[in-house]
Design a protein that fits this description.
By secondary structure, the protein is mostly helical. The chain has one domain: Serine Threonine Protein Phosphatase 5, Tetratricopeptide repeat (Alpha Horseshoe). It contains eight helices and two strands. Strands 1-2 form a two-stranded antiparallel ribbon. α1 packs antiparallel against α8 and α6 (about 130-140) packs antiparallel against α7. It starts with a strand and ends with a helix. Bound molecules: adenosine-5'-diphosphate and magnesium ion. Magnesium ion (MG) binds near residues 29, 34, 36, 37 and 175.
């Protein structure tokens, strides 16, 4: 079972990982965007970590809801509302329980990922964060409920492959789409950060 402490550790370790990866994320965004993805997420997840420390929620849903609200209010740009929606919607779908199973989390994450797709209008293959999130949630749905480390490990591998697979794609959503065919040959920054988010999930579950 996964409790509020687990989700708090996930958010804190994401804040630390984003700090380390910020320059690389910004570099990826300078190739096909406006060079702010690393600084956007660094600011957002620092606010998430601070808010969770100040008033730690007692439920998994509460943790993700608070984290999503912080991202929406502190991150300008496309990724703030999108990641904020992902976490808020996932948190809402988790409900008020103090513990959730891997299968319950997989269902909630599916609702969160669907909300991202609805908000941004993107589908698989559009070269966005969804290209890492969709394979991750699929892997999680297909995993056994009784081994969280294995389930999140499978999700991590799927997300990382999905992020790598954005390199040959042409962007059809977001700023990168303005480049048309020139967006081909670069890894999508948002898919890269989404894979990072799933990697930290696997790390805290290991
Ligand atoms: P901005 O593009 O406003 O500068 P960021 O640089 O923080 O915002 O985030 C860019 C990332 O956001 C992209 O790499 C892409 O993965 C993701 N993104 C942009 N638009 C969409 C969309 N409509 N749907 C899903 N993801 C999107
Ligand atoms: Mg940008």
């Amino acid at each position: 079972m996964l409790d509020a402490g687990f989700f708090g550790r996930w958010m804190r370790s994401t804040a630390a990982a984003v700090e380390v990866a910020a320059d690389r994320l910004t570099e990826l965004d300078s190739a096909i965007g406006d060079a702010d993805h690393g600084s956007n997420l660094r600011r957002g997840f620092a606010a998430v970590a601070a808010a969770l420390e100040k008033e730690p929620p007692g439920t998994p849903g509460g943790v993700l809801n608070l984290a999503g609200r912080q991202l929406i209010s502190t991150v300008g740009g496309a990724s703030g509302p999108l990641y904020g929606t992902l976490l808020r919607r996932t948190g809402k779908a988790l409900g008020d329980g103090t513990e959730v199973t891997v299968a319950e989390f997989a269902r909630a994450l599916r609702a969160g990922v669907d909300a991202v797709a609805k908000l941004g209008g993107a589908v698989a293959g559009d070269k966005t964060m969804l290209d890492a999130l969709l394979p991750a949630v699929e892997a999680l749905e297909g995993a056994a409920d009784d081994d969280a480390a294995a389930a999140f490990g499978a999700a991590r591998e799927a997300a990382e492959s999905g992020a790598l697979a954005t390199v040959p794609l042409q962007a059809r959503k977001g700023r990168a789409s303005y480049l048309g065919a020139r967006s081909v040959g670069h890894q999508d920054p948002g898919a890269t950060s989404a894979a990072l988010l799933v990697r930290t999930l696997a790390e805290v579950a290991a």
